[in-house]
Structure formats: C-alpha cells, structure tokens
Amino acid sequence: MFDLEGKRVLVRPAETKDLRLLYTWRNQADFIELCSARRRIVGYEEFVEEFHRDLDGDCHIQCVIERLKDQTTIGTVFSYNLNLVDGFVFVTIFVDEHYRRLGYSVEAMALFLDYLFTTLPLHKIYMEVYGYNDASLSVVRRAGFAQEACFKEHRYLDGKRHDLFRFALFRDKSQVVKDFLARLRLRKEGG
C-alpha cells in the first residue's frame, strides 16, 4: 500500500481502525449533502457492510486524511468508477467541518490526484460538485478543472432543486498539481 505525505497532511489507505470515524461522517448531514447520493442514515453494522460492498464494487481507493502535526484524522478522499479502457476515474473528498478552509483539503486532493495520474494510465479525473457547494466550486475551478457538464436541477434538497456540475482534470493539465506540490515541498524544506 501507499502513504502520501505532504507538508501538513498524510493521505493513507483507510484501515479497520478508521471505520468508526468514517461511519460517523457517513451519517452526518454535511457529508450526505456534499459527498453522497445516499440519503438514509444507517447503523454501524449496515455501514460496515456498505463499506466493504463499495470496496468490492465501484469504489477504487478509500483513504483517510491525517493532519501531520498531531496525527488527527480530519477527512477522507476516495476514487470510484475507475475505467481504464477510457482512462478516467471519479474522486470525492470530505474534510471534517472543523478543518475546512484551512488548506488541508487542497493539499490532500493534490497528493491524491498526483498519485492517480502517476500510477494509472488516466486521461482525466472527474469531480462532481453540487451548485450549493460554493467553496468547492471555487477551488475546483481555480485548480485547473474544466467544467464538462451541468446537470440542471439534479438534486432535491431542503425543498429546492440544485444543479450538479461535473469537472475534469486532464492529464495534460495535471502539471498544475505537480507545481502546487513542489511549492509546498519548498516551503516545507525552507521552514
């Protein structure tokens, strides 16, 4: 297996010891609203079955994100619907609300994207973001992802319909990820 270490985060494969925290996040309203098509709260045993079924099915890699300074698990990032024939995969990231807007998710996603492009013959990596997720929409657009689709009124939430945007980062544009990680490494070495 692999560990991806950045300046402030470590991205590592999820282990059995992470299941309780992943279960907690799986049932949180913000995870359901931001990262999942599943809307129903589940019990722990059902979650464990769902987790293993996903790993045996369309989930490609499930990782957790740890903050390096204290080894606190702060989020998860995963890839799914891997298609090596056409060369694409989808990714999703979730960071606990206490650690959002601090740069951890950007660094973790950059490490994960770089890993995927380095180890797999991918042409592009997809991310899907709901229209009400302004913070993620802003980051994805600034990171070089190209909008490929807008699924109008795709999600019904809180009595309203919301669009779903699909973005792609193409391999030929992935240098922006490598450049970002290089800048972080220089800052890390420089103090």
Descriptive notes:
With 191 residues, this protein is α+β, with helices and mostly antiparallel strands. Helix content is 36%, strand content 35%. The chain is built from six helices and eight strands, in the order ββαααβββαβαββα. An eight-stranded mixed beta sheet has the order 1-2-3-4-5-6-8-7, with helices on both faces. β7 (146-157) and β8 form a beta hairpin.
What structural class do helix, strand and pairing data support? alpha+beta
Compute the average pLDDT: 91
Largest sheet, order of strands side by side? 1-2-3-4-5-6-8-7
Biggest sheet character: 8 strands, mixed
Form type = globular
End-to-end gap: 29 Å
Strand content: 25-35%
What is the helix content?
Answer: 25-40%
Number of helical segments with 4 or more residues:
6
List the helices and strands and how they pair.
Elements: E1 4-5, E2 9-13, H1 19-26, H2 29-35, H3 44-56, E3 59-67, E4 72-83, E5 88-95, H4 104-119, E6 124-130, H5 134-142, E7 146-157, E8 160-170, H6 175-190
Parallel strand pairs: 5-6
Antiparallel strand pairs: 1-2, 2-3, 3-4, 4-5, 6-8, 7-8
Helix pairs in contact: 4-6
